[in-house]
Design brief:
- It contains 7 helices and 9 strands; from the N terminus they run E-H-E-E-E-H-E-E-H-E-H-E-H-E-H-H.
- By secondary structure, it is α/β, with parallel strands linked by helices.
- The chain has a single domain, classed as Nucleoside phosphorylase domain (Rossmann fold, 3-Layer(aba) Sandwich).
- It has a 5-stranded mixed β-barrel, surrounded by 4 helices.
- Helix 2 packs parallel to helix 5 and helix 3 crosses helix 7.
- It is globular and about 50 Å long.
Length: 260
């Protein structure tokens, strides 16, 4: 009998752990999965590569979603269809706020919905917010890993390369936006409409949105430096540990409920 697979990602419809870390790059998914015990590759179709294993006794899924929110939200939707209930995005981002350095982590509290897809699903007034428990779990995990981190609202933008329209960087800088990336708001919106716990931790690979845009335009942008790789390694542990902390929190809540 043929296994029941979901149509876009070709991941199995059942049997995956309900807590997931999602990343853009399929190779990064493999690197994060290599940290797990009993790691196994579950499926690989297009940009969607899925692994399962154990992190310190907690069953977790690791999956890649490619570049850009329209494709990424397909993975998020099918993860939810497959039974995911907690999803944390581990990605890279350009810093917008001053004082944030390459390799630092940014823990997202919410996101600007400039993602190119959620505006076709819901009115623009609908918020993209991280689950508070995900923010606190990521913050605790970052502290325990001694990883430099910042908290705040991030800007999810569909266009990677700068075009002819000026970016409202000054406006968003004054408003306190901390970083710019490409997929998180799609996850946060999907999660809130599906009843999932979701959040994001981002590794800075460029230290100013204006400089990052110029670097992309001139070919000087380089996210493959050692300082970024070291940040991704820290971020991987932080994301996995946050999933563990969230799982432990759920177990504690269930125990308290049973005792009442």
């Amino acid at each position: 009998m043929t296994q029941d697979l979901l149509p876009i990602t070709r991941m199995p419809r059942t049997g995956l752990p309900p807590r997931a870390v999602v990343v853009g790059d399929p190779a990064r998914a493999a690197a994060v999965a290599a940290l797990l015990q009993e790691s196994r590759e579950v499926s690989h179709h297009r940009e969607y590569r899925v692994f399962a294993g154990l992190w310190k006794g907690t069953p977790v899924t690791v999956a890649s979603h490619g570049v850009g929110a329209p494709g990424a939200i397909l993975l998020f939707q099918e993860l939810a269809d497959a039974g995911a209930r907690t999803v944390l995005r581990l990605g890279t981002a350009g810093a917008v706020a001053p004082g944030i350095r390459d390799g630092d982590l940014v823990i997202a509290e919410a996101a600007v919905r400039d993602d190119g897809v959620t505006g076709q699903l819901l009115p623009p007034e609908y918020p993209a917010f991280a689950a508070p428990e995900s923010v606190l779990a990521l913050q605790r995990a970052a502290r325990e890993a001694a990883a430099p981190y910042h908290r705040g609202v991030v800007w999810t933008r569909a266009a990677f390369q700068p075009g002819f329209t000026e970016l409202p960087v000054d406006t968003y800088t004054r408003a306190g936006i901390v970083a710019i990336e490409m997929e998180l708001s799609a996850l946060l919106v999907l999660a809130s409409t599906r009843g999932l716990v979701a959040g994001g931790v981002l590794v800075i690979d460029g230290v100013n949105a204006d400089e990052l845009a110029d670097a992309k335009a001139t070919g000087g942008y380089d996210p493959h430096r050692d300082v970024v790789a070291e940040g991704v390694a820290r971020g991987s542990v932080v994301a996995l540990d946050a999933l563990r902390l969230l799982a432990e929190g759920e177990s504690g809540s269930e125990g308290e409920a049973a005792g009442r």
